[in-house]
């Protein structure tokens, strides 16, 4: 008797659920949702927070006629957490676009799931593999190593005359893929590095490495390191009286990295980046930097700007009538967009950014100046 | 070549002396309560941030800012050590040791995230002990900052030695660590000795954090690296041997720096861990033998 | 007349069962009470309970009329109880002088005087005052353990099997010292396996069997044989 009663109750419940689902208004009529899934804690918290800030600055100022709601979730440090956040976002918010983490490992885990849900991921991750796996949902708004490393190597060789560079690169995926690209570009310029040294992110003492750089007779340093290590390497090289020039990776363009080093130690040191909002080389950039500074009480960097541009391109798609994930995705794949940092257009696999810049510090200030632009590096635009 | 070696040695000693302070605090807790404090590395990191925070409060242009904030950092971190004891150790002192592993790991994580949320996740540079400038010693250029770091670490270690061996309170700490029940029978209040030990360990961690924060910056996620160094130092030096741990920490830094300069960081790291494994297999009581081994 | 030390129905229970069952006896100032029994009879549990290292399930302990039953271990020194535990349990890494310094109570002047007293009572410790405890010989270690227990001039001295592991020639010294402790006014409770030696210096003999006191007589009235059979037999004689 009790069992059949329970069964009837369950059947009734199921019937109610089905009816309720049928009676729900069509999703497309809801305000459009965007999810922001970025690492706010953990070792990429700095970049993830920049992503979040840039995304929010864009999403809070949509074009006329467009309303979006957004949710922010922390992807922390592991792929599992990122995947959970993604699944939850897809279930609860049904977003038409997702601001996705800079962390390549997390992106690789998220891409297949986003692909099945057909929702575009807007990221600034540089990990090359992302756009090589055949998922058409990944859109990266930061130039990949194939672009920025070209700028870094070419500036070092063509402008600074480096002939015997030493490469210090991080043991992480970021470091390893960057190094591979640097070596390739240098080879194309007829230059071979005299030393390639892998540096664990936990290492704080660069003197052994600098000793070996000197012993190898290097005339310049190319760095592919994260923020703290870059600052340490630059500073310790200065203290040792290293005479060659240094061209660092994007980490050095970040104001928080430059803040760690005395301006004098930065004299003549250069870095590659997609952009440098704090260098404020145009009124629009200055306005962006000011708005960012006021709202978040911290200086903006290229990652924030790239995410800002990316989300604005999504908003442009919505303004142009896209209403669902697939529609936004197709719009992003098929249109050009003039952002603050550069013009973005897909190369067919989701790489949207193809310009890079080289910034250099003058030894008096921590705000670098743009020294050279490398536009359309791989000929896509 | 000699200048290079001297240079490397100076760098290694500066780094190693900070590691030695870390290992010292860590092993004091192990000795006193038999508990492994997995939050110790995060205490060092917190000490670095305390140094950064206190330095921000100083007016512009104060000379020797590192020295000025040092007492404050030691005090703040001693209190942090006490708080750690109260939260992670005291409620669990009758539970199996593994409970304290977990509770201290938890507190370490909370500390790390709290600081990341409060101060931001980016690396920070702490106050310098002394101004810039180098001095020539046998052809090698050593920075005043490096020499000051070694000196401060040495003074702190000496202070701990004097406390433990030349004061009545220190003797009572040692007695309580060696046989808590008999110490109680002599009228010693273990709450005071345990509290004092955690406070001392916290202060030493704070000192190490300050010393490291200028030369090497401090990031909220640094705790794990420091923890690992301290743990290896204690294993190599002999579990529970106070000065064995400090010497081992120094040795580890020197080894790593010299091998990294000669070959590469990866080889230095690999050789270090291989060495530790070999030591564990061939001489598990550590280079200086376990303190527990002597019974009377 | 209040005895220096009084036990009143003292019962100590462990997980395995009752270790001391309703023990009642007293020990006067200047008296040595030898507590004897087979292994596991409850001697150590009794001593530990008196020292404050184990709680009583029931009963009371009084020192000069003052009830110390509820006092925690670290408070018993001030109550006038000194404990020399089984196995000596010295602070291995501390020197003789450091050990005494840790155990001595009072200000600097009182501690200096205490040191003098101890070195008079234990001349061998004066010679070895800077030796680390674990480097001492067995006999010297026992002396240090006793010294640590008595440096605060306790009214009650508890000794748990001090003869273990010591050579006969050393035992003479140790037991002579224990006798001297009583002569200076303390109430001495001595738990011992070495029955003849214990009887030689004791005023009273108590035998425990499975936690129960089965014999409580003046020591001169009996010999080792009586003690042995009391340890094993079902007979009891109280006087």
Could you write a compact summary of the structure shown?
By secondary structure, chain A is of the alpha/beta class.
Q: Which parts of chain A are unreliable, with pLDDT below 50 for 5 consecutive residues or more?
A: 20-29
Number of domains of chain A: 2
- Write down the overall geometry of chain B: globular
What's the arrangement of strands in the largest beta sheet of chain B? 1-2
Structure description:
The complex is a heterotrimer of chains A (381), B (296) and C (239). By secondary structure, chain A is an alpha/beta fold. Chain A folds into 2 domains: 30-143 and 282-350, Response regulator (Rossmann fold); 145-273 and 357-374, Rossmann fold, CATH 3.40.50.2300. Chain A has 12 helices and 14 strands. Chain A has helices spanning 2-23, 45-59, 79-92, 104-117, 145-159, 173-188, 207-215, 227-239, 255-258, 283-296, 302-319, 325-334; strands at residues 32-38, 68-74, 97-99, 121-123, 138-140, 165-170, 195-199, 220-224, 245-248, 270-273, 337-338, 343-344, 356-360, 369-374. Chain A has a 7-stranded mixed β-sheet, sandwiched between helices. In chain A, strands 2-1-3-4-5 form a 5-stranded parallel β-sheet, sandwiched between helices. In chain A, helix 2 (45-59) runs parallel beside helix 11. Chain A is globular, with a radius of gyration of 23 Å. Chain A starts with a helix and ends in a 7-residue tail after the last strand. In chain A, 54% of the residues are buried. Residues 20-29 of chain A have low confidence and may be disordered. Chain B is mainly α and 296 residues long. Chain B is 74% helix and 3% strand. Chain B contains 11 helices and 2 strands. Chain B has a two-stranded antiparallel ribbon with strand order 1-2. In chain B, strand 1 and strand 2 form a beta hairpin. The termini of chain B are far apart. Chain C has a single domain (5-90, 154-238), classed as Rossmann fold. In chain C, the strands form 2 sheets. A 7-stranded mixed β-sheet of chain C has the order 6-7-8-3-9-10-11, sandwiched between helices. A 4-stranded antiparallel β-sheet of chain C has the order 2-1-4-5, covered by helices on one side. Chain C is globular. Chain C starts with a strand and ends with a strand. Chains in contact: A-B, B-C. Chain A binds chain B through residues 41-43, 45-46, 49, 171, 197-200, 202-205, 207-209, 211-212, 227-228, 231-232, 239, 241, 256-257, 259-260, 298, and chain B through 4, 7-8, 11-12, 15, 113, 116-117, 120-125, 141, 143, 212, 215-217, 219-222, 224-225, 257-258, 260-261, 264-266, 268-269.
